[in-house]
């Protein structure tokens, strides 16, 4: 029990140190030695939890994206032809709340230098719940490459995140209404708020 608590404290300290260092310098300029020193642990302790700096980065981004993306990607009952507006609105609210919780991490971790890795992790997170995304498993099998759907879904999430973080004009409720109005029916069908016509 004591070792488990100590281990969690070490991981928390390492993650906090990484965020602090990412505010101060470029990702490429941060070393494991820097991370260990800032976290107040030795390098052996760092390597007990993470094999590399990139593994640390990916674990932090994955945890963040899982909470944010899964506000939309989760099992839903078979939808009808009309959008389930009530469920969609609630999920949009939850999405913005999740982005708010990770506001600092998003602004610090997803930079021009790290975005390529972040996007790969985003794709992995989406694929973990592929069965909960209609177009990837049920619509037009074999006709559209899976990669195109992944790009589309990633773009949807990143657009929403960018807009919410950059704007300060609308409350969460107002932003949720705006986002619901801008979501096209085909996007709603992807996330199972509406059945894809013809299926």
Arithmetic mean pLDDT = 89
Q: How many strand segments? A: 0
Task: Report, as a whole number of angstroms, the end-to-end distance.
Answer: 52 Å
Shape: elongated
What is the radius of gyration?
A: 19 Å
Q: Give unreliable regions as ranges.
A: none
Query: Helix/strand-derived class?
Result: mainly alpha
SSE order, as H and E? HHHHHHHHHHH
Report on the biggest sheet. Answer: none
Describe this structure in words.
It is a single chain. The protein has 199 residues and is mostly helical. It has eleven helices and no strands. α7 packs across α9 (146-166). The mean pLDDT is 89.
What distinguishing features does this structure have?
single chain; 199 residues; mainly alpha; 11 helices
Secondary structure layout:
Blueprint: H1 2-24, H2 32-39, H3 43-49, H4 53-69, H5 85-101, H6 103-109, H7 115-128, H8 134-137, H9 146-166, H10 172-182, H11 185-190
Task: Give a brief outline of the structure.
The chain is mainly α and 199 residues long. The chain is 68% helix and 0% strand.
């Amino acid at each position: 029990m004591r070792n488990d608590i100590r281990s969690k404290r070490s991981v928390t300290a390492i993650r906090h140190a990484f965020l602090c260092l990412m505010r101060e310098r470029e990702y490429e300029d941060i070393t494991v030695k820097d991370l260990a020193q800032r976290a107040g642990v030795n390098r052996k302790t760092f390597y007990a939890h993470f094999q590399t700096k990139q593994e640390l980065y990916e674990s932090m981004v994955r945890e963040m994206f899982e909470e944010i993306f899964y506000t939309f990607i989760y099992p839903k009952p078979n939808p009808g032809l009309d959008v389930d507006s009530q469920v969609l609105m609630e999920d949009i609210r939850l999405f913005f709340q999740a982005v708010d919780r990770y506001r600092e991490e998003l602004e610090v971790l997803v930079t021009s230098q790290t975005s390529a890795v972040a996007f790969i992790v985003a794709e992995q997170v989406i694929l973990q719940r592929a069965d909960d995304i209609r177009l990837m498993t049920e619509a037009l099998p074999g006709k559209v490459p899976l990669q195109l759907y992944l790009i589309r879904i990633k773009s949807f999430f990143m657009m929403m995140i960018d807009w919410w973080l950059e704007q300060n004009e609308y409350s969460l409720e107002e932003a949720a209404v705006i986002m619901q109005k801008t979501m096209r029916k085909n996007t709603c069908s992807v996330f199972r708020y509406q059945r894809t016509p013809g299926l």
